[in-house]
Specification:
With 371 residues, this protein is of the alpha/beta class. It has an eight-stranded mixed sheet with strand order 1-2-6-3-7-10-8-9, with helices on both faces. It has a two-stranded antiparallel ribbon with strand order 4-5. β1 and β2 form a beta hairpin. It is globular. The chain starts with a helix and ends with a helix. The C terminus is likely disordered.
């Protein structure tokens, strides 16, 4: 009898503890009265709904823009977050199966905005000072068509027959949930001009690794470059999901090296991320290389998650993504605010330099030959 009571008591307490832990988790998630639920397969439609609600709740901080459209006509949403003069460009979900980076960016906006409106402190960072000093220009989902394919399957696309003709790369073993490319079969992180003109083994549309038939062949990459060519940023961060580390830490000695080194050191200390180095197999046509060679600004590619193979990182494990990386953008903002303003203006993009030089030449030519 006593043994039965003891067993019953132990089971009862185990159930109570389990309920208590579950309640604590739910309360922790709801404590900020948040809008964004990152513990789900975060879709394009959910992103649009959450962005609209975030803007409604925090109109003094958040502005929504469209910078272009995807292959299938989805608007490429850009969220301007903050009121500072120094812009920092962030993007996520360049690769379709890495849509947890969209969850991360949307949740980040939600958390920081809530902190701004409720005391102004987040993890010992002065959010009010940060968001009055910088503006985050955030493109949460670079590749919405690809994300839709990964989450909803082949027959959710506009032209299933065309998509079905695109081969699945041998490394993408899980089929369409392993897809990285846009809906044309072009890897958007291999579609930029820098180091594009190299021979690669994948020379036709594929679920990953195809760089496109020409640089900037895709509407998504064109839209990004058009925006960046006319909206100068002080730093650029591209979020991906495999490797818990940082690319771009070894930028060769530009004027911003002091802030770049400090960014990387502080992020590594806060997150435990390691330094990563690209190889010839994957370092071609990348967003990072193109930004670095064109704009001469800090550009980091941050891999948020541990490596899980060729499928999406589990949504239910979002806390393991958020916890180490929750202050990454605040660290970057603080370092950007330390940058010397004259140096920034001295190193405008090659695009603008060529445009200004052309206009100056035309002006001087006209003045010389006019009577």
């Amino acid at each position: 009898m006593n043994r039965t009571l003891t067993a019953f008591t132990l089971c009862f307490f185990a159930v109570v503890v389990a309920i208590s832990l579950a309640t604590t988790t739910i309360q922790a998630r709801a404590a900020t009265d948040g809008i964004v639920d990152p513990y789900q397969a975060y879709s394009y439609e959910t992103m649009l709904e959450d962005a609209t609600e975030l803007q409604r709740r925090y109109p003094e901080l958040i502005r929504l823009k469209t910078i272009g459209t995807s292959v299938e006509g989805r608007n490429l949403l850009l969220i301007e977050f903050g009121n500072g003069d120094r812009r920092i460009f962030l993007n996520g979900a360049t690769h379709a199966r890495e849509y947890i980076t969209t969850s991360y960016l949307m949740y980040m906006i939600d958390q920081y905005a809530h902190a701004y409106a409720n005391g102004g402190i987040y993890e010992n960072f002065d959010i009010k000072t940060v968001l009055e000093g910088v503006t985050f220009a955030i493109l949460p989902m670079v590749n919405p068509d690809g994300v839709n394919l990964v989450q909803n399957g082949l027959y959710s696309t506009q032209d299933p027959a065309a998509v079905a003709r695109i081969p699945i790369h041998r490394y993408d073993r899980e089929g369409y949930i392993s897809w990285k490319a846009n809906i044309n079969g072009v890897d958007l992180n291999r579609n930029y001009p820098a180091n594009w003109n190299v021979d690669r083994a994948v020379n036709a549309p594929s679920s990953s690794r195809f760089k496109g038939y020409t640089p900037l062949s895709e509407p998504e990459s064109i839209a990004i470059m058009r925006y960046l060519n006319s909206n100068m940023s002080w730093a650029y961060i591209s979020f991906h999901s495999q490797g818990e580390g940082i690319y771009g830490w070894n930028d060769p000695g530009e004027w911003y090296s002091q802030q770049l080194d400090s960014m990387v050191a502080r992020i590594m200390e806060e997150s435990g991320f390691r330094k990563l180095t690209g190889t010839s197999d994957n370092n071609y046509g990348t967003f990072g290389d193109h930004i670095r060679s064109t704009f001469h600004k800090p550009i980091l590619t941050i891999e948020l998650c541990e490596y899980v193979g060729s499928y999406p990182y589990p949504d239910e494990d979002f806390d393991r993504v958020w916890s180490p990386a929750k202050t990454v953008s605040l660290i970057i903002a603080e370092e950007v605010m330390k940058m010397d303003a004259m140096s920034y203006w001295a190193f405008q993009s090659d695009y603008l330099y060529r445009k200004l030089s052309r206009n100056l030449f035309i002006t001087m030519f006209t003045l010389h030959f006019l009577p």
